[in-house]
Amino acid sequence: MKKVYLLLLVILLSTSIKAQQTNYRASKEIKHDLVHTKLKVAFNFENQTLLGEEWVTAKPHFYHQNTIILDAKAMLIHSVSLNNQKLQYDYDGFELTIKLPKSFKKDELFTLYIKYTAQPEKVKQKGSKAITSAKGLYFIDPLGLDPNKPTQIWTQGETEASSCWFPTIDAPNQKTSQELYITVPNKYVTLSNGILEKQIKNNDGTRTDYWNFPQKHAPYLFFMGVGEYEIIKDSYKNIPVDYYVEKQYAPFAKDIFGNTPEMLQFFSKITGIEYPWSKYAQIVGRDYVSGAMENTTAVIHGEQAYQMPGQLIDENIQENTIAHEAFHHWFGDLVTTESWSNLTVNESFANYSEYLWLAYKYGKNEADAHLFEDTNAYKNGQNYDKHLVRFNYDDKEDMFDAVSYNKGGAILHMLRNYVGDEAFFASLNKYLEDNKYKAAEAHQLRLAFEAVTGKDLNWFFNQWYFGNGHPKLDVTYDYNELRKTVTITIYQTQPEDFIFPLTIDVYEGTTPTRHQVFVNAKEASFTIPYKSQPKLIQMNADGVLLCDINENKVLSDYIFQLKNVDHYMHKYEALHEVAKRQDDRNAFEAIADAMNNEFYKIRKLAVEKINLSNKFSKRKEIAKIMSLANSDPKTLVQAAAIQTLGKLTDPELASVFEKALESKSYIVMGKALVALYYVNKPLAVQKSKDVPLEVKNIIATPLTRIYLLENDDSELAFMASNVLSGMFLSRDKSTQLLYKEAYEKIGKSNNTIAIKNLAEDVVVKGKQYKQYGFDQVGINLLRQMIQMQKNANGSNEKKNIAIIQEAMTKLLQ
């Protein structure tokens, strides 16, 4: 599962922090083992229900059993039988307790037949921040009433929602093979786990597709997708690799997903285990409830995966997610977490696979930048007190957080660094080989590493997997010029005890001498000799240790660090610190020099941070930024350069902005429109009106900025469709404020279409993010709009208020 981090700022600020529960969350007791699951399903689109028949084969795990309990949420159970003999059962809407005709002993197989109706709209269990709904089966525009949305069906099983569409033992420590017969109208294609072995045309305009998956996997990985898709064929060796996309994105499917075969090859090589499944398919689902999901051989992505060439030229924002879900086919699908407490043995590996892929494909800088951003996401959340492996939690859904994912990935990076690459990947291989098609936990991971390396790793796992927090270090330096030594003293200020290896680089010139030390106490000192007075001492030089470091660096230290230290994390830190002091000539010149850095993210950051309004001559720097705007190999740097030049409001730069409007990059085009507006308003407005419709929503933010500055009421309906995303899902504060202004302008307006667009979006997002409390935020927004309409007293006041009140009614349903 790849999460989407939502920045619902209003809600997050008002949400109280729950105390960690003390109840022990045991793994689900295994009374029966699932063996095989055969399903036949059809759909009632109008009622949004599934008509199902199931043959579930199971056996007692150890003790004799005369009943079996299956998870089955919000279903109608029509009949249960064994060998044509009807069985007695009890059903409470959550569990189906079936009385067996005799006491079955260990490993004695039996196959139950169950006829049922699944009613996903009546499911009561809630989702999480990672998976925003938990009803298992989703009908998207089932009656085809929305002209902007196709009819689709898709499922989402994690954590325990597969039991919303078929009875099962819905636990990650179960494994079953499966067969699935899906009956749909002929116009739809289907996707499920395994291979499509047969298609049967029926006499009523429907077709039955037979999907067979003979290998074992967990019930939460079952998947079913239905819709009008184009199937773009690809392959890895002799294994089909398919991309299911809506027709308009078919020409770009390989641009989005086309690295998948190379990922499968790379992951097969580093794990030492060839891709273990019969196919690899990816499908994009509308209104999907998370980022993506690793259903075995049938991955689903949210619609953010859809990108046009003008976006892909900047970066493929889905590529990390594609890698993440692919690696899950080893860690999560082949070997599955034994319990949700051990979720990190799934998610930390998928998270770290993003680093591994980026380093392999694009180089160490790209990977280090990604790891740094991920680690900061963990640190900036309320995560310090959470254990990586948690046997005490409020709800299993709470395990899907930046600890299980981001911190877990950082811990794997530290483990790899400690044991070495060869041992690390050999240990992964052993863990996978020993536990394939089974469930496992962190202890088994430790045992695999110990078996390969011969090292006792209890200390590592106890503090990082079964403990919480991370080192917080105060560092001091004591120079002895007579002896030519520096004593580095490290104080750990966090309450937990940590021991760890640490890398220290000492710069006597521009090339460092590296020292490896091991910190094994709350206070530790290390004396390092030098020949000449060090210009800089860089702690955690390789960026491996997950920690916070407090040390007394001055501006000259940061300038030297920016110019000479290679690791992205330290360059980023130095650039931010130096940028604060550009009133100093050396600091300004260091920022200007960083615009020449070989790594584009440093160039981009330097361009964004440089202060062109200070007292120093800037002609050379402006010329450099113009050059970056015109010809930097990265369009993201070009866009940053245009935005920086735009702040100068210099008419002489108009030609740079006009040229940028011809860019294939939508972000460059958007930045150029805003920059041009401040030096040639008529041309910028004209160009904004000429933007093709399919591009308009992609560059909605710069267009909204122009339309607000122009007070252009004719574009209110367009702005309304993007207001909520801009106000609540943007990371940029200026963007949030921009859309807040747009919201207030629309709320006061007489424009009925704009009011309707905004109100409908409030309903959609209010329901989509209900678990965050966004339904209540939506109600408040609608109430404010009613008051704004009353205060404005426009000619359409009554009509507009009626539209808003209707939206409130829908949101409250």
From TrEMBL:
Keyword annotations of the record: Aminopeptidase, Hydrolase, Metal-binding, Metalloprotease, Protease, Signal, Zinc
Q: Where is the Aminopeptidase N-like N-terminal domain?
A: 36-221
Which top-level group of life is the source organism from? Bacteria
Recorded catalytic reaction(s): these are:
Release of an N-terminal amino acid, Xaa-|-Yaa- from a peptide, amide or arylamide. Xaa is preferably Ala, but may be most amino acids including Pro (slow action). When a terminal hydrophobic residue is followed by a prolyl residue, the two may be released as an intact Xaa-Pro dipeptide
Broad EC category: hydrolase
Provide the cofactor list for this protein.
Zn(2+)
What EC identifiers does the entry list?
3.4.11.2
For the keyword Nucleotide-binding, the answer is no
Give the matching Gene3D superfamilies: Leucine-rich Repeat Variant, Neutral Protease Domain 2, tricorn interacting facor f3 domain
GO molecular-function annotation terms? aminopeptidase activity
Leader sequence residues = 1-19
Q: Which positions fall inside the Transcription initiation factor TFIID subunit 2 Ig-like domain?
A: 468-536
Q: Which InterPro entries match?
A: Aminopeptidase_N-like_N, Aminopeptidase_N-like_N_sf, ARM-like, ARM-type_fold, Ig-like_TAF2, Peptidase_M1, Peptidase_M1_aminopeptidases, Peptidase_M1_dom
Peptidase M1 membrane alanine aminopeptidase domain ranges (all copies):
259-464
Query: Which Pfam families does the protein's record reference?
Result: Peptidase_M1, Peptidase_M1_N, TAF2_3rd
As for family, the record states:
Belongs to the peptidase M1 family.
Which protein are we looking at? Aminopeptidase N
What is the organism field in this record? Tenacibaculum geojense
